[in-house]
């Protein structure tokens, strides 16, 4: 699929009307988009530059842009709750998802994180997405295929239990492991066994008890660095002259992120030094 350049057949295009309502269409030669504000011919958009304005038969103007990945993530059908873009952005950078990386994620859920990982690892990397529920895996496959226009060759969506994976299933260890499942602390042995020394492990948990169990489990296993935990809060602002202020509503809590790195085999993690109490 094309990410930029003039529109062509098959592109997903977002039309925005003067009331800022969005409509998404897939460009098909000879086809028409019908609204109560008139008809828009797909042929009027094919060949135009992104950011063009197309006018319906009733004179309404629509702004045309390609669907961005974030638009797709938030509008696609879901089997399971998705990782929100504010959090997948954190995972890509803090999880150090590099071009060419071999990454394993579980569960694949609706495929939102899979898309972000696939774009980041590029054609030379590989993403293994494990999912225990067939219906969820099908959502992930449909959503990812719909976004990329085909199933990416560097993607292995697999039906299976993360806890049963070995390096034999992956042709060797992976560079990064990302878990988004209810009880990740039950699967830390598997993370240890499939992650390369120095590899980054991140997990995404919604509640404080989950966070505590995960942090304690990582510490107890003794083969990871002292874990870090945080959450990301993103607050939009309304910027209009003297009325400039934060928006009233925000997606305040989604989940906590936990981060650690795999130590080399046989290494005992240095004890974290805590300040003495007075
Ligand atoms: C919240 S969803 C993941 C959403 C996904 N990260 C996304 O962005 O679309 C959690 C998924 O983990 C799956 N799951 C739970 N336990 C699992 C296991 N042991 N192995 C593989 N998948 C598992 C669930 O079936 C569910 O689909």
UniProtKB/TrEMBL annotation:
Source organism superkingdom: Bacteria
Protein family (similarity comment): Belongs to the class I-like SAM-binding methyltransferase superfamily. TRM61 family.
Assembly and binders: Homotetramer composed of a dimer of dimers.
GO biological process annotation, one example: tRNA methylation
Pfam families: GCD14, TrmI-like_N
Entry's Gene Ontology molecular function annotations: tRNA (adenine(58)-N1)-methyltransferase activity
Role noted for this protein: Catalyzes the S-adenosyl-L-methionine-dependent formation of N(1)-methyladenine at position 58 (m1A58) in tRNA.
Keyword line: Methyltransferase, S-adenosyl-L-methionine, Transferase, tRNA processing
The species this protein was found in: Corynebacterium maris DSM 45190
SUPFAM superfamilies to which the protein is assigned, alphabetical: S-adenosyl-L-methionine-dependent methyltransferases
Record-annotated membrane-spanning stretches: none
Chain positions recorded as S-adenosyl-L-methionine binding sites: 110-113, 131, 136, 161, 180
Annotated ranges, domain tRNA (adenine(58)-N(1))-methyltransferase catalytic subunit TRM61 C-terminal: 75-240
Descriptive protein name: tRNA (adenine(58)-N(1))-methyltransferase TrmI
E.C. no: 2.1.1.220
CDD domains: AdoMet_MTases
Class in the EC hierarchy, top level: transferase
InterPro entries recorded: SAM-dependent_MTases_sf (IPR029063), TRM61_C (IPR049470), tRNA_MeTrfase_Gcd14 (IPR014816)
């Amino acid at each position: 699929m094309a990410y930029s350049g003039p529109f062509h057949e098959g592109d997903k295009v977002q039309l925005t009307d003067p009331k800022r309502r969005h409509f998404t269409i897939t460009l098909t030669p000879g086809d028409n988009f019908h609204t109560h504000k008139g008809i828009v011919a797909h042929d009027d958009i094919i060949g135009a530059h992104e950011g063009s304005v197309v006018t319906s038969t009733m004179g309404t103007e629509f702004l045309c842009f390609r669907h961005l990945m974030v638009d797709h993530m938030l509008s696609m059908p879901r089997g399971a709750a998705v990782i929100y873009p504010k959090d997948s952005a954190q995972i890509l950078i803090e999880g150090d998802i590099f071009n060419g990386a071999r990454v394993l994620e579980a569960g694949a859920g609706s495929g939102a994180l899979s898309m972000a990982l696939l774009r980041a690892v590029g054609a030379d990397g590989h993403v293994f997405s494990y999912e225990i529920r067939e219906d969820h895996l099908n959502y992930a496959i449909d959503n990812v295929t719909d976004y990329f226009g085909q199933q990416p060759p560097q993607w292995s969506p697999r039906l299976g239990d993360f806890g049963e994976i070995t390096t034999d299933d992956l042709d060797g260890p992976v560079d990064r492991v990302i878990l988004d499942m209810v009880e990740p602390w039950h699967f830390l042995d598997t993370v240890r066994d499939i992650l390369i020394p120095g590899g980054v492990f991140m997990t995404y948990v919604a509640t404080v008890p989950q966070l505590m169990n995960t942090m304690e489990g990582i510490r107890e296993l003794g083969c990871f660095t002292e874990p870090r935990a945080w959450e990301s809060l993103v607050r939009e602002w309304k910027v209009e002259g003297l009325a400039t202020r934060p928006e009233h509503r925000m997606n305040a809590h989604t989940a906590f992120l936990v981060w650690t790195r795999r130590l080399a085999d046989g290494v005992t993690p240095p004890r974290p030094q805590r300040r003495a109490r007075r």
